[in-house]
Amino acid sequence: MKYDRKPCPSSPGMPVLQGRPLSGNAPSPKRAARLSHYLFLGRGDYLLSDVPLDRIDPKWRRAAEVSADPADWSFSWNLDAWRRKLDALKSLGAERLYLVMNGFELPYPSRKHPQLVEPDHVNVTHEFLQSALDHAARIGLEVVAGFSTTGHCDRALQVYPDLAGVHADGQRWKCAMCHNHPQAQLFVFDVLDEVLDRYQGFSGVFLHPPEVGEYCHCIHCAKTYRSETGRDLAEQDEAGRMSWFWQTGMTFLSSLYDRIRARNAHLDLYSCTIPGVWRRHFDAIAPLLPPDIKLIHWRYGRFDDAARNQLGSDLRLFTAHGHRVSFANSVIFACSSMTDAELRENNRVVNRFVQGFGVDEIVYFVGPVWKQERIAAGSVSPE
Ligand SMILES: [Zn+2]
């Protein structure tokens, strides 16, 4: 829910505008929406633990988004620090926290994949997460466990390169597995099962589909297609191959939801949109997404006329198959060029706009870096 990183293929071409662009003002909001935040337990998909904080990709160095001070990064926080952060979110009006449990590496002492952990993460060296979750429950803050499924898994692909998707030229993807590879599916099961076994008290599970804008060329995709259709995948045109790849992705995602339901039928289930791809293929993949899955649609940055038209089009599309939709704003990413006051007004206007489309939850993206004043300024309560 961030962006398409190189060298994974980015979403192809310009977004396709679906439906009729909006003109004039947005519909009026109907009711107050829930306020939530989205935070990484560890470094998430920002950087690997062996990359110094001051060596982070220049696009992330903007002062409002990253910091060279480890104390600002969630991987360095102990239980007391987490309690203070959870209290701070609650004081901003947050009712729910989406806590991303993996990413490039694993911010917990994994027994199944110990070579993938963030070795300096405090939850690895002095495990505290269960106590933090207990604190969240005490103060009335729901916590949803988030997982990046087959995407954002750079360290795992260094250790298990054969699980990666494949480009047209035969090169392996660098940041996403192929969901049609049986061993990749087992890897996702491992992470999901281990976290849900290890920690108790989550109110739900959020599954982030991979942010890839290219279909996969691996032998497992070819084999799966042949077994489904009796035909050769290469005979499909570009649009058909992309649509089929995402249909198989949605089928895998649905199997993960079934797996979660079998463990605990009371967990709320979430996913998010991958707008650059889903705008073109949502009508084909939406019927495979169970209707009780809540989608988080996201867009960060300034809300100009072009953004307004695109967002209105997106929200009509992503609500068209009956799924409830939340909306993710940012208080960090892509907002650096705004002053605190501009960010606050920007988010207020966006919130009002999306609520007009039935959005009943605003999720503020924080990521792995805590900037107290910025978070307070940007976390506008929905009206
Ligand atoms: Zn594949």
What does this structure look like?
There is one protein chain. By secondary structure, this protein is an alpha/beta fold. It has one domain (34-378): TIM Barrel (Alpha-Beta Barrel), CATH 3.20.20. Helix content is 35%, strand content 14%. The chain has an eight-stranded parallel barrel, surrounded by five helices. A two-stranded antiparallel ribbon has the order 4-5. It is globular, with a radius of gyration of 20 Å.
Quick overview of this protein structure:
With 383 residues, this protein is of the alpha/beta class. It has helices at residues 79-91, 122-125, 129-138, 154-159, 182-198, 219-229, 238-263, 275-285, 305-318, 340-355, 372-378, and strands spanning 34-40, 96-100, 142-147, 164-166, 172-177, 204-207, 268-272, 294-298, 325-330, 361-367. The chain is globular.
Supply the number of helical segments: 11
Q: How far is the first residue's CA from the last residue's CA?
A: 24 Å
Q: What's the arrangement of strands in the largest beta sheet?
A: 1-2-3-6-7-8-9-10
User: Average pLDDT across residues?
Assistant: 90
* Share in β-strands: 5-15%
What proportion of the residues is helical, as a percent range? 25-40%
- Spell out which ligands are present: zinc ion
Shape: globular
CATH homologous superfamily designation:
Glycosidases
Count up the domains.
1
CATH class membership: Alpha Beta
* CATH topology annotation: TIM Barrel
Number of strands: 10
Q: What is the CATH-assigned architecture?
A: Alpha-Beta Barrel
Broad structural category: alpha/beta
